[in-house]
Write a structure and sequence with these properties.
Elements lengths: L3 E4 L2 E3 L5 E7 L8 E7 L6 E6 L5 E3 L7 E6 L4 E6 L8 E10 L3 E5 L3 E5 L2
Parallel strand pairs: 2-11
Antiparallel strand pairs: 1-3, 3-8, 4-5, 4-9, 5-6, 7-8, 9-10, 9-11
Length: 118
Amino acid sequence: QVQLVESGGGLVQPGGSLRLSCAASGSRFSLYRMGWYRQAPGKQRESVASITSGDNTVYADPVKGRFTISRDSAKNTVYLQMNSLKPEDTAVYFCSAQLVTTTITTYWGQGTQVTVSS
């Protein structure tokens, strides 16, 4: 069982920056593929970025060049640095942890609100 707690959301003006954090419980953090998703009102949840246990990263096209995902295994924490924020980045951002063995197990955080508005 893994518990994920996100923090760092808030209100920011267009062009501004925020850094989201996701603290994970458990002893196998380094084995998990970690990801950030977001869900805007009336829209489906979408993947934003992910990072594997080997630090390979993948980004959704809308955030490439603006967002950076990273992980600190010593702190059991994954980060999402968001720069040059746009109003369309407004959403609830969720952290996920996925472990692939003979099955796929995915855990979710409770989400943190990011609002980009002037």
